[in-house]
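STRUCTURE REQUEST FORM
Protein name: MATE family efflux transporter
Source organism: Pseudomonas mandelii
Requested output: structure tokens
Priority: standard
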Amino acid sequence: MEVTRLAIPLILSRLGEMTVSLFYFSFIGHFIISSLSHASFAWALTSFLTVVGIGFFSTSLMKVAGSTDLNAESVELDLVISFRLAFLYGAIIVSAIFVYSISESRSLTDNGNLEGLKLLLILSLSIPALYLQITIFNFFNAIKIAKYELIYTWLFNATLASACAILIATNTNTNAIHFISTYVGLRCFFVVLAFCFFDRKIHKHILKFRHSQSIPTKAYVNYFISSLPMALCFGGESLLFLMLSFISKSLGDASLSAYQASLHFLSVVYMISIGVGNATGIVAARHFKLKKFYSLSTTYIQGIKLGAFILTPFLLACFFFNEYISIIYTSDVPTRKLIEGNLLISIPFLVFEYIYVVTRMTLRSMGDFWIPTLFTISLLNILGMILSVGLLSFYNYSVHSIFVALVLCSFFLMSFLLWRLGSLLRQLNHQLVERQLPYDRA
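Status: completed
Returned output:
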């Protein structure tokens, strides 16, 4: 029950973030169509950087979740470093994109490309806000108060939707720069509100919390090293799907459209995996800290069962209602047929993906970061690309081969991570029994 209570708001929060992208693309795609390609590229890059940030700061989530004393100096130190690095990394990214935009704009004469650089620069201003948002709600989620992020996310969605409705109702001659500036402004405004809320609530959990304190350089280095594997893991997965989009593009416009549409639907389902995976990891982290390995195993099984229950309707939809799903994305018949085939192929992928996400988060709750990351990069990025190219060359030169490759590499990743978790649990239980034997004999 503990996993379920935590997973539901986390899933709804993740779906809320997916809704933000829906508003973004729907508004530009219907009312500023000429800027859609540039706006899509800007969103793709900032999304990739956001995903890397989610991975980087997720280590802090596991540390706080596993802590038995929130007033311990290490928890406060970790939180302060998270805030400082969130702002620092966000500022570095904005500065880098600013320098890139200035250097590129000097050699460009096409107004369209110049607009693309402006859109990218403006949208990048949201990255520091997103990193701070991740840091704030990682803490609240880790202490199992997930309702704060849920309220925040959907309140932001309601405000953004209202802004879009006002722009439409007033028939304002809005261009992409105005719309994206509005989005970024709302992001910054909301994160300021979230930070003020955090500042009011934090002292109930960490009595003497101070933002301004001297922190040794070694602490920053240790934080970076411990956060690196998850950043690489999340970034690697995101990069894989970006690379597969380029392969899909080489197959033709219909294949690229079908790939992107299918991937969007799978991404919605992926939010369930992330929500339940985080909930399972948060609960399991405390059991691991207290050396309650049986409770940890029980928590993991509860997470898997919860996923089986929630995923079943989506799997049935992919099988029985794939035609209705495809028509949501396009009315083009050839593209729809490709989407329908992709969804059928992806049914086992969704199962394997869910299991490996929950298993990987459970391993991370046990402090096992590098091995799952290396497995993920090796079996998704490297093996996934090899399988995709191989199947396209020797099996079927269509976008379906890409999804068959995803099924295969996700199966191998799931199998390796299950083996890793079972091996670690057996080892830990054996060590626990060995420690208890001298006391039993005494």
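Reviewer notes: Residues 30 and 293 are 53 Å apart (CA to CA). The chain has a mean pLDDT of 89.
Form closed.
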